[in-house]
Design a protein that fits this description.
Helices cover 38% and strands 18% of the residues. The protein is of the alpha/beta class. The protein has an eight-stranded mixed sheet with strand order 5-4-3-2-1-6-8-7. The chain has a six-stranded mixed sheet with strand order 11-10-9-12-14-13, sandwiched between helices. A hairpin with a 3-residue loop joins strand 9 and strand 10. It starts with a strand and ends with a helix. Bound molecules: adenosine monophosphate (AMP). Adenosine monophosphate binds next to helix 10 and helix 12.
């Protein structure tokens, strides 16, 4: 009987599950989508199969169906030894992963006002998993925890200080598990101690953020109080002038609607008017669709500005590392972005840049580049599995 670790990531209408052995080899994964909708469905990529879900299926039933599928495939023959949950917001309470107790559940709930779309659904996943495996230790791994090392000058907004004191208004940062993985993986690849590595980590997926890591810890990051701040993303605007709220109010668009537009109708989708998908945008740009080309230009320029900004927090740089669906796969984005940064001494090797994509991380800078540039496929599930085992079996 093989000992296993289960990793759960609940989104508003989705559930991702991954199963690892205790040497951290991935045994299986499953994705349930459109939960709560008529056409809810779930599948496993390997072995490739659909997992039957009832119409309108909720997170709890989807979890049960996924676990049953793992069992039917002979992958889960006994209860897992630990279960790790991705939890989006840990506020200032959690600087590291936490073994889930009633107090921890309460603290996650207390952070829900900072992440109303995410923390409640993360709690649903934890409760459903607790019902299914009441004896198994469960661990919360927070997206924000890695950034709790940010110095005050990097996390404070220039707002009335009481906003921070009374309501916790500050930069928290997200994608922490991915940035942490990138720092450790860069250290491993460059044969340096993890607490001596300095990296700029660009996580570019549908959500995008960039982090400066000095001596292994996060010292600046682009996402803020919420994941809306910073880089241009698939449907999120990233940075805008806050004066926009007042301007649009004058046009009859209220704050709630602006918030929705900034989150769902902006970014690559808003600029191109077509799609938030970088692969499609690149194809359309090549076919002469100007708004798609423009969306890519704005995306890359903003990213370049942020790479420059992250240098303000570093005294040395071991590598600039790209990850996420876009960071790993888009040679075009990497090339355009670094094209803006020649003054800083970045220089890409065009052929290794084109070569590297998913599963083929590696070095893409030219011999004369002042800084190393690398592509590294991220693995947030692996970080969560490791943290789940560490926190539950110290
Ligand atoms: P993620 O959220 O990490 O899955 O990343 C999703 C983003 O990665 C989408 O914008 C995809 O279009 C983009 N992506 C995936 N594969 C490619 C590719 N081969 N070229 C360009 N973008 C890609």
């Amino acid at each position: 009987m093989e000992d296993t670790l289960l990793v759960i990531n609940c989104g508003s209408s989705s559930l991702k599950a991954a199963l690892f052995d205790t040497s951290f080899n991935k045994l299986a994964s499953a994705l349930a989508e459109r939960l709560g909708k008529e056409d809810a469905f779930a599948s496993m990529p390997s072995p490739s199969m659909d997992i039957p879900l009832q119409s309108g299926c909720n997170h709890r039933d989807a979890l049960r169906a996924v676990v049953t599928a793992f069992r039917d495939q002979g992958l889960l023959t006994a209860a897992p030894v630990a279960i790790g949950h991705r939890v989006v917001h840990g506020g200032e309470t959690f600087r590291q992963a936490a073994l889930i107790t009633d107090d921890v559940l309460q603290a996650i709930e207390d952070c829900a006002s900072l992440a109303p779309l995410h923390n409640p659904v993360n709690l649903t996943g934890i409760e459903a998993t607790r019902d299914l495996f009441p004896e198994v230790p469960q661990v919360a791994v927070f997206d924000t925890a890695f950034h709790q090392t940010l110095p005050k000058h990097a996390y404070l907004y220039a707002l009335p200080y009481r906003f921070y004191q009374d309501w916790g208004v500050r930069r928290y940062g997200f994608h922490g598990t991915s940035h942490q993985f990138m720092a450790n993986e860069t250290a491993r690849l460059l044969e340096k101690a993890p607490d001596q590595i300095s990296v700029i980590s660009a996580h570019l997926g549908n959500g995008c953020s960039i982090t400066a890591i000095r001596d292994g810890v996060s010292v600046d990051t682009s996402m803020g109080l919420t994941p809306l701040e910073g880089l241009v993303m698939g449907t999120r605007s990233g940075d805008i002038d806050p004066g926009l709220f007042d301007f649009l109010k004058g046009k009859g668009i209220n704050a709630e609607e602006v918030h929705r537009i900034l989150n769902n109708d902006s970014g690559l989708l808003g600029l191109s008017g077509k799609t938030n998908d970088m692969r499609s945008l690149s194809e359309q740009a090549e076919d002469g669709h100007e708004p798609s080309a423009l969306a890519i230009e704005v995306f890359c320029f903003r990213l370049a500005r942020y790479i420059g900004a992250m240098m303000a927090s570093l005294t040395q740089l071991d590598a600039l590392v790209f990850t996420g669906g876009i960071g790993e796969n888009s040679a075009l984005v990497r090339e355009k972005t670094l094209g803006h940064l020649r003054l800083t001494g970045f220089s890409l090797d065009p052929s290794s840049n084109r070569q590297h994509g998913k599963h083929t991380g590696g070095r893409i800078d030219q011999a004369d580049s002042r800084f190393r540039v690398m592509v590294i496929p991220t693995n947030e599930e692996l970080v969560i599995a490791r943290e789940a085992l560490d926190a539950s079996h110290p």
